[in-house]
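Researcher: Please predict.
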Amino acid sequence: MAQLADEEAVDELRELEPSPVEETPVDSAKDDYFPTSKISSKPRSDRSNTSTLGLGNHSLNFYLLRVQRYSSYAFSLFAVAHATNTSLLPLLTRSLPASDTYLLLTRPYYQSTLAEPLLIGLPLALHIASGLTLRLRRRRRLTQDFGASTRAERRTIAWPALSGTSALGYALAPLVAMHVFVNRAVPLKVAGGSSDVGLKYVGHGFARFPALSWSVYVALVGVGVWHGVWGWARWMGFAPGQVRVGGGDGVVERKRRWWVVNGVAGVVAMLWGAGGLGVVGRGDLVGGWLGKEYDELYRYVPILGRLI
């Protein structure tokens, strides 16, 4: 937190012209999300000497950014556990039944009544909501800096450009929602729970709908991994745009960081794909009463139900 406070103090001394930019200023987007415009004679309504909670002289954006940051910590813990169960263990065991044993043993810890909403649902909702609110507030600040007072004037001002990490986040949201609907919501609604739903259920779906399943899961893993790795690089101050050195040394360091971050993302994505797609995705159709139950679950999924 001391490092964040020092960086914010530096950013407060900078003055940026209130004009649209091609890319979000990285150093200002990192902590306060807004570039600091020239000092206006009008006091800003979102800043005060002390917040209503007595938390100090910080804007709402300060707290929104921290909600977005710390909510990602909690969800990252779940992502690591989920990747271990659905990718690393299948890669090591090379068997869906053996991997399902570990999955069904550990899943109750993060699908319990308290753990699931606190570790998954609430952090994910807070992460998305804080990001959307920050973008809307930045848009509002931009229209104010241009003096747009009417709706027609505001429509002439372009929305702030999305960073690559933010764009990946918006693309990831519907993919995660689809994944949760198929693997969690449908079993809860139809079967009353997920006791029989494991990696064999996912493998059954790959065998039943190969093209669609592979396309969706490749997108989910790729977009999710790149969003997560670049997000963590920014939280750790390692993103290329956070380089403070100028000149040729700064250019070299930014390129080095770009290659490192993308290299880490590539390795993580390949590991996830090797187990999750290379093993689970090559599963066969499940026979017997369990296969019929899986088909019944997939019938409740829009589009997929028509293909069975």
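Model: The chain has a mean pLDDT of 82.
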